[in-house]
Amino acid sequence: MTDHKTIPAHPVSIQDNTFRDGHQSIFATRMKTEDMIPIAEEMDHCGFWAMEVWGGATFDAMHRFLNEDPWMRPRMLKKYIRKTPMSMLLRGQNLVGYRHYADDVVRAFVDQSCEIGIDIFRCFDALNDFRNLETCVERIKANGKHFEGAVCYSLTEGRLGGEIYTLDFYVKKAKELEAMGADTICVKDMAGLLSPYDAFDLFSALKKTVRVPLHLHTHYTSGMGSMTYLKAIEAGVDIIDTCLSPYALRTSMPACEPIVAALQGTDRDSGIDLPSLLRLSEHLESIAPQYKHLLADHKLSMIDNNVLAHQIPGGMISNLVSQLRDMKALDKINDIYREVVRTRKDMGCPPLVTPSSQIIGSQAVLNVLFGRYVQISKQLRDLVFGLYGKTPVPIDLKLTAKILKNYKRGQTPITVRPADLLPPEMEKARETIGHLARSEEDLLGWILFPQTMEKYLQAKYENVAPARKAAAGC
Ligand code: CO
User: Fold this and answer.
1) Which of 98, 233, 297, 315 is exposed most, by the fewest CB atoms within 10 A?
2) How remote is the CA of residue 400 from the centroid of ligand 1, in Å?
3) Is 193 helix (H, G, I), strand (E, B) or coil?
4) Are 447 and 425 contacting, i.e. CB atoms less than 8 angstroms apart?
5) How many CA atoms lie within 13 A of 168 on its CB side?
6) Ligand 1: distance of its center to the CA of 38 in Å?
């Protein structure tokens, strides 16, 4: 790695996440499309492997808070981003919403996303139950697009290992994704838990097992992100995710510039032009003041090593804080962090990522305030009943019986793919919304976000003042 005259034998590819995960992680997903356009063309020339521009919480935040039509952003960006593939984050059968949608909705959503210019689909499931990706994959492939299968990185101990999240677990999951036709495989470390030496072991093992290129997505939250990338690069990872520096670090991704600089002249040199990155970051600095109030500034430290214990991703922490503030119970936050760990264990140790993070986080709040499982949320009942898929380990039978007591769907959890139980939704929705949905895009948006999208569409077509309330997830 040290000969400065070496022509890179295996350049590291870099995906830029500034326009999606970057502002989602540190500016509550509030970056406006008009602020992306002035730099989109120069970013297109940087040589990124892809630019993630859509999905995750963007769809929700755009219509709810920014009064923007979510479908328009990729369309507009495509005019400037002509050679770099555009990617999106898709939560499998949850799409970009918070429940499982019927197969006809998933098919129409993926088809429409291809139509507006999405080239790469990073698909994940919060429980790592890949049956929830099947319908998405079928349409991604039918449209000739790139399916990136993602496995959510989670732990039960401080480091890789223990009873569930072992090296073998991730190798097995990667093989499953490859067998499903994944064009690339991503390890999605949404809370920044992957430590540098575990990353080395993990990518060394994955390199030996699967043939398709490997992609690592991590966050800077715990402070290990850049070190983790370097060790993953030494182990042969093909693609990493970064953001331009003003939108990086904290709970966002490692910054692009230092990694590009560190690899220059080595056999993993990314080939990305550092001066253009510096110009782009300077531009972002010039628009940053309007977003600065969204930055968490309650403490001096940019990192939070506590995340290694509670594993709560950044977006979920801000949701918890606002939920507790509304209940005038912010002083209970540390009890709740501890209870999140217990509730997650009770629920079969799923990774904490949308929507499992919200379901477990909200139940942990109820458990602390009212006693354990005295009040039980509908979403937790649905999770225990199997409506989100199979949990990594089975939930205790006694607890299952307690949670499903009087549950309207029954007391015995299902074992089939959850969407097999969902009747088609498109036609009924079309009849219900009527003329307010003027296109397939309006209709899909309304199915995903009935209340807020209805207000958005009324404002757009009927000149009713838009509502801007409630919080977006992550
Ligand atoms: Co992320």
Assistant:
1) 297
2) 31
3) coil
4) yes
5) 4
6) 24
Share above pLDDT 90 across residues of the chain, in percent, rounded to a whole number: 83
Domains in the chain with CATH codes: 13-294 (3.20.20.70), 307-420 (1.10.472.90), 425-460 (no CATH)
Q: Measure 187 CA to ligand 1 centroid, in angstroms.
A: 11
Please tell me the distance from the alpha carbon of residue 379 to that of residue 394, in angstroms, as a whole number: 17
Mean pLDDT of the chain: 93
| Separation of CA 252 and ligand 1 centre (Å) | 7
This model's pTM is above 0.85: yes
- Cβ contact 198:218 at 8 Å: no
192 CA → ligand 1 middle, Å: 9
The C-alpha atoms of residue 326 and residue 205 are separated, in whole angstroms, by 46
What percentage of residues in the chain have a pLDDT greater than 70? 95
Query: What is the distance in A from the centroid of ligand 1 to the CA of 17?
Result: 9
In the reported structure, the alpha carbon of residue 312 is separated from the centroid of ligand 1 by a whole-number distance in angstroms of 12
Cα(413) to centroid(ligand 1), Å: 31
Q: 314 pLDDT exceeds 80? A: no
What pLDDT is recorded for position 471? 41
pLDDT band at residue 466 under the 50/70/90 scheme:
low
- Two tokens at 464? 């009713």
**DSSP per residue, 426-460:** HHHHHHHHGGG--SHHHHHHHHHSHHHHHHHHHHH
**What separation in Å is there between the alpha carbon of 371 and the centre of ligand 1?**
33
Q: Alpha carbon of 359 to those of 28, 335, 355, 371, 380: distances in Å?
A: 19, 17, 6, 17, 6
* Stretch 361-371: mean pLDDT: 94
CA 20 to ligand 1 center in whole angstroms: 9
Token code pair at residue 429: 């929705």
* 137 touches 131 (CB < 8 A): no
Compute the average pLDDT of residues 206-232: 97
Q: What is the pLDDT of residue 277?
A: 97
What is the 457 CA–ligand 1 centroid distance (Å)?
A: 29
The candidate with the shortest Cα–Cα distance to 387, out of 367, 408, 406, is 408
How far is it, in rounded angstroms, from Cα 361 to Cα 319?
A: 9
Asked whether the predicted pLDDT for residue 103 surpasses 60, the reply is yes
Return the residue matching tokens 């709810």: 64
pLDDT at 101 over 50: yes
Q: Looking at residues 353-379, what average pLDDT do you find? A: 94
* CA 217–ligand 1 middle distance (angstroms): 7
314 CA distance to ligand 1 centroid (A)?
9
